[in-house]
């Protein structure tokens, strides 16, 4: 690579990063985690937000502010769990749906329905997600029979082999071989 074209190196780096992110995203319920995280943010934010209009302050402070904060933080945590521990995606999805439902009475109608709907969709996507099949598994199977010349060899003695019966009978007689 010449010093006159440094843009190609950056372009290559960006393609590698994009490809790695696409592979990472395909191995886990990415969109479910994103919707769940985005659902937790308004649920936790709105009870503590205050809007200033001129000299007037509009605050949405409620008595359930701590409950809203806990629900929002748990939803963000569940979204991150869906990304980094996708093996527990069903548990995380069910928990996200339950927390979204609990946020309706606790947190200003679930973050004014924005957080409720996002968390509900994220939980449902997490439950419905299934890992994809590997590229090798999708290759068509060979039409050759298993007994054919291309059949894989099985290492070690076979079940009907005479060495197995000799070893078994020798072991049964205390280590002495009856043949010799």
From TrEMBL:
It comes from the Bacteria. Residues 160-169 have a biased composition (Polar residues). Residues 139-151 have a biased composition (Low complexity). Keywords: Membrane, Transmembrane, Transmembrane helix. Signal peptide: none annotated. Pfam families: DUF6114. The chain crosses the membrane at residues 29-46, 58-80, 87-106, 112-130. InterPro entries: DUF6114 (IPR046096). Residues 139-180 are annotated as: Disordered. This is Integral membrane protein. It comes from Streptomyces wuyuanensis. The lineage of its organism: Bacteria, Bacillati, Actinomycetota, Actinomycetes, Kitasatosporales.
């Amino acid at each position: 690579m010449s010093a006159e074209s440094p843009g190609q190196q950056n372009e290559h780096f960006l393609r590698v990063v994009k490809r790695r992110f696409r592979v990472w995203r395909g191995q886990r319920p990415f969109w479910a985690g994103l919707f769940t995280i985005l659902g937790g943010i308004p649920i936790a934010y709105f009870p503590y937000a205050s809007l200033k209009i001129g000299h007037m302050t509009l605050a949405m402070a409620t008595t359930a502010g701590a409950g809203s904060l806990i629900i929002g933080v748990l939803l963000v945590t569940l979204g991150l769990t869906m990304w980094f521990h996708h093996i527990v995606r069903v548990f995380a999805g069910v928990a996200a749906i339950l927390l979204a439902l609990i946020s309706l009475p606790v947190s200003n109608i679930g973050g004014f329905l924005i957080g409720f709907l996002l968390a509900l969709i994220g939980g449902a996507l997490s439950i419905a997600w299934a890992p994809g099949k590997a590229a090798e598994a999708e290759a068509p199977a060979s039409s050759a029979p298993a007994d054919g010349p291309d059949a894989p060899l099985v290492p070690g003695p076979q079940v009907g082999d005479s060495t197995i019966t000799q070893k078994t009978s020798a072991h049964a007689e205390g280590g002495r071989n009856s043949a010799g």
